[in-house]
Amino acid sequence: MKEELIKRMIEEEKWARSVRRKYANWEFINKQPPRIKAALIYLIETGDFREAARIAKMNIEEFMYLAKYKANIYSCP
Amino acid sequence: MIGVADTCFIIDWSKYSNREVLFKLFNKVLILKQVLDEVRREETLNYIVQKMMTEQIEFYEPSTLVLREADEIVRRSISIPHLRRVDLPEALCIAIGRGYGYVVLTENLGAYYFVKHEDRYKHVIIWRSIDVLREAYLKGFLHGDPLNIIEEYQRETKHVFSKREINRFIELVSRRKHERGTN
After folding, report:
1. CA–CA dist B13, B165 (Å, integer)
2. Which among B77, B84, B90, B154 is the top mutation candidate for probing chain A, defined by the most A β-carbons within 10 Å of its own β-carbon?
3. Which end of chain A has fewer surrounding CB within 10 Å, N or C?
4. For B89, which residue in chain A has the nearest alpha carbon?
């Protein structure tokens, strides 16, 4: 039962990662300074806004705005 | 009904044109100190403050006991293999949800699966935005084609739902519509 839950979560994460990778504005991401670029890539791979904001040394909301509305990285479940 | 919202949820929701439906479903939504501290943008702050003035959003400072429980939730979530970590703001929402029976409003996958995984928290109700949209639709606060509602939310907030979630949403609202039609 619990293994099933974790399996479902992993599947959901896999799908979400594919959405983030597919729709991300890679041209914008690649032009960013190294720290921001690393944070955006981390976000694409993990979906973790808070940790990515820490990497970028930005406030989470400012980072969410940059990621969603400039780098076109969707938040997914 | 009272909800307790985490940061990403309230930020997304503040950008949605039909955001008023949240307060048709909930008498009050609590915003924790730790969540408010993370909000910076003027439009989000204005939205929260305006709702605080009408007492639809209530600022809430968690007690030491709640903080301790939230810290335990964070540590427990880290120890479960493959589970996405639950951060302190979401953990606080879960602790409050367990203690007071408030609905936890979050998009955080870790929080969503944590309560399903842990027996102590299995009664905590977690609503993601798609659950809020579904309830609002079923209660008649949102009208029109359900798929358009989903698409509008996704477009405005840049939050995407999975096909499985969307299908479940459509299936449920269609079934309810059918039941109402046959009763």
Report:
1. 18
2. B84
3. N
4. A50
- A42-65 per-position pLDDT tens digit: 999 999 999 999 999 999 999 999
Residues of chain A by 3-state class (helix, strand, coil), percent to 5 = 75, 0, 20
Whether the Cβ atoms of residue A67 and residue A49 lie closer than 8 Å to each other: yes
Q: What is the value of pTM for the model shown?
A: 0.93
Model ipTM over 0.90: no
B41 touches A: beta carbon within 8 Å: yes
Q: How far is A41 from chain B (nearest CA, A)?
A: 17
Residue B127 phi, psi (nearest 5): -115, 130
Q: Ramachandran region of residue B158, left (φ > 0), alpha (ψ -120 to 50) or beta?
A: left
Tell me which residue of B149, B160, B162 sits closest to B17, measured CA to CA.
B149
Mean pLDDT of B80-85: 88
How far lies B48's CA from each of A9, A50, A59, B2, in Å?
Answer: 31, 20, 17, 16
Interatomic CA distance for residues A15 and B79, integer angstroms: 24
Q: Where are the domains of chain A?
A: 2-70
- Nearest CA to B78 out of B34, B114, B52 is that of B114
Query: CA A39, B38, A21 angle in degrees (round to 5)?
Result: 30
Which of A12, A60, A62 lies at the smallest CB-CB distance from B109?
A12
Q: What is the pLDDT of residue B183?
A: 57
Nearest residue of B to residue A46, measured between CA atoms:
B84
